[in-house]
Design goal:
This protein is an alpha+beta fold and 143 residues long. Helices cover 20% and strands 24% of the residues.
């Protein structure tokens, strides 16, 4: 009887006993950035007609050079954050001779999306349909 009671006590104590949690050290993962950093302010500063040296001053020297087409510059940027994912951005600039012709990529200039000014309104003529004056209707200019 004592043996059964002691086995019962050990089984109850065994269920309530928790093993200490052993923490295994993990490998530290770093954020990896590659390529040229591309920001919206850089893209906003680019204007068609800029020289190659002006573009290099704004964007930096391109990492990826196209040896077959020297009039095309590719800027590629990627950042890999651990447990989050990879973000990739790119911009491709095209030159006509020494001047920037146009560019494409993941960013667009914010000035392109700016609202257009309101149209110039014409003053309505108060004359009757048969009494049209010789002069053109006056146009109101907004400043």
């Amino acid at each position: 009887m004592r043996v059964i009671a002691s086995l019962l006590m050990l089984s109850l104590v065994g269920c309530s006993f928790h093993m200490p949690r052993i923490s295994i050290p993990r490998v530290h993962r770093i954020t990896i950035q590659q390529g040229n950093v591309i920001t919206q302010t850089m893209i906003d500063k680019l204007k068609p007609g800029m020289t190659r040296s002006q573009v290099t001053f704004i964007m930096g020297e391109t990492v990826l050079k196209n040896s077959f087409n020297p009039d095309r510059w590719d800027y590629i940027y990627s950042v890999q954050v651990p447990n989050v994912g990879i973000t990739k951005r790119s911009a491709t600039l095209y030159f006509d001779g020494d001047l920037l012709a146009f560019f494409t990529g993941d960013y667009a200039p914010t000035s392109f999306w700016a609202p257009t000014p309101p149209p110039v309104e014409e003053i309505e003529d108060s004359t009757a349909p048969g009494d049209e004056p010789d002069a053109e209707p006056a146009v109101v200019e907004q400043s």
